[in-house]
What does this fold into?
Amino acid sequence: MRAPSRLPLLVPAWLAVAVLVGPLAALLLRVDWAGLPGHLSSPAVGPALRLSALTTTVTLVVVLLLGTPLAWLLARSDHRATAWLRALVTVPLVLPPVVGGVALLAAWGRTGVVGGPLQDWFGWTVPFTTLAVVLAEVFVALPFYVVSVEGSMRGLDRRYDEVAATLGAGPVRTFTAVVLPMAAPGVAAGAALAWARALGEFGATITFAGSFPGRTQTAPLAVYAALEQDPQAALALSVLLLAVCVVVLGTLRSRWLR
It folds into this structure.
C-alpha cells in the first residue's frame, strides 16, 4: 500500500530532478572529450582562467576580511535595526545581476557617487578594469558568505563570550580566540560558497566591467564569447566550471548532510 500512496509525490519529484539534471547531462553528452585538452588550451581560455583565478582569490580575501566581522555583528546584535541591516546585506542574493551591474556603475562609474570624485581628483577609472571585476564579484559573493557565517555564529552559546570576558579578554580577543575557532566550519563553508559564486559571476561583471580578453573577460564571459566562434571551446570550459562547482559542493556535502 505504501508504494502507490507515494506515487503522487514521486512523479513530480523525479520530474524536478530531470529538469535540474537533464541540461547538465546534455552538456556532458555534447562535449568532445577526445579534444577537450585542445579546446581548453585555446588562446581565449587560458587568459580567462588565469583572470578568474586571480579575481576570485582577491575577492575571497576581501570577503573574509569584511564579511566575517559583519556576520559576527549580525549574529550578536539585538538592535531593532539589525533585521533591516540583514535584509540590505542579502538584497544582492535576489537582485537581478544586470541591476547589480547598473548599481555598481552608479556608485563607481566615471560620473558615479564614488567614481566621479575618484576620476576628478585622482584620474582613477574603475569601470571596465580588473578592479571592476573584483568589485562585481565581491558585491554578489559577500552576501553568500555573510549568511552562512552568521548562521554558524548565531548558533554559538553566548556564555562562551561571557566567560572570555570574565577572564579579561576584550571583544577583539574574544572574537579571534573564541568565536572564530568555534565557527570555523561555517567560515570554511561560507568561503567556499562565496568563491564559487564569484567564479560563476556573469551579469554584474559584463555590465560593470565589460568583456575585454586578458583584462575583464573571466571564464563565464569567455564561455559566452566562445559560443559563436568556437562552441566546443565553450562546452569544454563549461564542463571545467561544472567540475569545479561539483568539487566545491562535494566538499560541503558533509556539512550540509550532518
